[in-house]
Each structure stands twice: as C-alpha cells, then as structure tokens.
Write a structure and sequence with these properties.
mainly alpha; 6 helices
C-alpha cells in the first residue's frame, strides 16, 4: 500500500509539479524580460523627448538671439509652441518681447527647425504613451501580474496638445 502511495507521489511530482514549475519559470523570465524591454524603450523615448526640447530651445535661442535668462519664459510657451502654428502672433510677440532687435531673416530657418523637431516630438510622445499603456496592461493582466518583479509604473507626464491628440492643429 505504501509502495503505491510513493509511486503516485513520484508520478504526481513528475507529471504535474515539475511541468508547472518549468512553465512558471519560463513565464517569469519571459514577462520580466518583456517588462524590462518596455521600460527601457520608454526611457529611451523620454531621453529623446528631452533632447528634442533642448534642441528646440537651442534653435530658438540661436535664431532668436536670446539669452539663457529667457529659458523660463520658453518653458511657459513650450506646450503652446507644440500646439499652435509658428507664425502665430503669440510666438512672434514673445520673440519680440525677449529680443527687440530680432532679425526677421532668422524667422524662416527658426520655424523650419521647430517644425521638424515638433513632428519628431509628437511621434516619440505618442510612442511613449503607447508603451505606457502596454506596460499598464502587462502589470494588470493575468498571469503576468503575479510574475513581474518590478511593479512600478513608467513615470512620464505627456505634454497635452491638440496636435498630439488629433494629429492636427485645431
């Protein structure tokens, strides 16, 4: 009788516990690798967004003849700069307020460089938002939510613009 119990126990371990353990280990590795990949890609896009902001500020500073003192004012208009057309009166007024001697010949290269960087910014911001959704789904769906080690969310606050939301300026 005890011999049958030992045989059943061994069979249970070999055919149930061992496969479940192997599957759990494989899923654990897979989900954690996927979570690290999403987190790494989101961090890369966040760094690209920061460098795009720096590049736009550098171009505004260079073409607009501004000093580093105007960076705080630039931070205030940056979301609007991403949202509005660049030939709007608000942007031109801000440039003239910061630099009375602004050279009008510099306006066209400034607008072209900002347009190029703005389109890149919007594309990267959309990608990071999609990565945040994918990460949130990974953290909340079964069985991944039980197996992921790092459960902290991706920390990024997107700049909300009509252009990023609708793909056009309203």
């Amino acid at each position: 009788m005890i011999g049958y119990l030992i045989v059943y126990f061994i069979l249970f371990m070999v055919f149930v516990v061992l496969p479940v353990g192997i599957v759990t280990a494989i899923l654990y590795a897979r989900y954690n690798r996927r979570e690290r990949k999403i987190r790494g890609e989101a961090e890369a896009h966040r760094r690209i967004l920061e460098s795009t902001y720096d590049r736009i500020w550098f171009n505004v500073k260079r073409h607009g003849g501004l000093s580093e003192q105007h960076r705080r004012d630039f931070n205030d208009i940056y979301p609007d700069l991403l949202n509005e057309t660049l030939d709007s009166e608000a942007f031109v007024d801000w440039l003239l307020k910061c630099n009375i001697d602004f050279d009008p010949d510099e306006f066209v290269p400034l607008v072209e460089s900002i347009e190029h960087d703005r389109d890149k910014f919007i594309g990267h911001q959309r990608r990071i938002e999609s990565l945040m959704k994918e990460h949130r789904l990974l953290l909340t769906s079964r069985p991944s939510k039980w197996l992921i080690r790092d459960r902290s969310i991706i920390d990024y606050v997107p700049i909300e613009t009509d252009y990023s939301r609708w793909g056009k300026r309203l």
